[in-house]
Amino acid sequence: MTLLGISILVWMALAFWVFAWWLNQRLVAIDTGHNLALTRAIGVAVPLIFGITLFVLWELLVRGLDVPTILLPPPSMIWERITNSTGILAKDFAQTFKAVFAGYVLGCGSGFLVALAVDRSPFLQNGLLPLGNFVSALPVVGVAPIMVMWFGFDWPSKAAVVVIMTFFPMLVNTVQGLAAADTMSRDLMKTYAASWGQSLLKLRLPAASPFIFNALKINSTLALIGAIVAEFFGTPIVGMGFRISTEVGRMNIDMVWAQIAVAALAGSTFYGTVALIERAVTFWHPSVRRG
Fold first, then answer.
1. For residues 129 and 179, is the Cβ–Cβ distance under 8 A?
2. Do 106 and 26 fall within a single domain?
3. Which of 6, 47, 204, 270 has the lowest CB atom count within 10 Å?
4. 37, 67, 97 — which closes off a domain?
5. Do 205 and 270 fall within a single domain?
6. Cβ contacts of residue 21 below 8 Å, gap of 6+?
7. What pLDDT, in 10s, does the model give residues 267-287?
């Protein structure tokens, strides 16, 4: 590409950025009053415009500066790879998501149940929680090879890594949430002669629900990351982590970015689903009512 062509594309990128910035500033400044539909529409439009702007800038700058595709392919090239490789991407995603879903359910479920036991036992609270902080700091690249040796090369070993990564965030957040009920409410339950189970169901679990959903949202992204990284250390010839590591060696960077795009979309969808469930369950909480 000539120097003139490069300059034109760079100036186009800058002009588009200025226009998108101006448009978002105008949208944010609109006084919606009590119009809930308009407020939601602007809330969707602003990040959508910002995201489109980033992709357009990416495309124009990569082509304008003549960046080698092996370093950073343009979005159009990544999209072309996605549309031409839907079968491979679907099989890789299905293989990885089996580990993600199984590990997420087992890790979060066991973390929640152990948190209830910790809440009943000061011994476990003083002994297990410090250990949990230590284990949660273990790097996944160190744990994944061990899990592959224990559970084999298929998805159960990746699910085991996900369990380790999601167990302690759920444990710690649930224990903190169960302690979030204020003293006056606890004393009121005692005056009603409520048992531990009644107090748990009617007071402490509702008070802990924002903490629990916070752990579920954090784990929704950790689970996908853990499964993909674990596939680097041994897997059948399918899976998102396997495909990324293989295609990097073959210098097929567009396929690597296609896998990254699918992972980002899946992680965002997973997180958004948990967030929607949170809004439905904890509609009474001030943080949700403000939204």
1. no
2. no
3. 47
4. 67
5. yes
6. none
7. 999 998 998 898 888 777 666
Give alpha helix (H) positions in 231-284: 240-249, 253-281
In this model, does residue 252 exceed pLDDT 70?
Answer: yes
> At 284, which CATH number?
1.10.3720.10
At residue 138, does pLDDT exceed 60?
A: yes
- If asked whether residues 34 and 165 sit together in one domain, one would say no
Sign of the four-CA dihedral 128, 166, 256, 268? negative
Q: In terms of residue numbers, what domain contains 7?
A: 3-67
15 and 107 in a single domain? The answer is no
- Number of domains, the chain: 2
What contacts 159, CB < 8 A, 6 or more positions away?
98, 99, 100, 102, 103, 106, 227
Q: Report how far apart, in Å, the C-alpha atoms of 217 and of each of 2, 142, 185 are.
A: 48, 24, 28
Per-residue pLDDT at 2: 64
**Is 110 in the same domain as 43?**
no
Q: What span, in angstroms and rounded, lies between the C-alpha atoms of 178 and 157?
A: 32
Helices and strands (H and E) in the chain: how many: 13, 0
Give this prediction's pTM: 0.81
Tell the residue number behind the tokens 């031409």, with chain if given: 84
How high is the pLDDT of residue 248?
87
Mean pLDDT value of segment 93-105: 92
Q: Per 3-state DSSP, what percentage of the chain is helix, strand, and coil (rounded to 5)?
A: 85, 0, 15
82-94 confidence digits (pLDDT tens) = 999 899 999 999 9
What letter would DSSP give residue 138?
S
- CB neighbourhood size of 223 (10 A): 29
Q: Are residues 48 and 166 both part of a single domain? A: no
Residue 4 and residue 45: Cα distance in Å, rounded?
A: 34
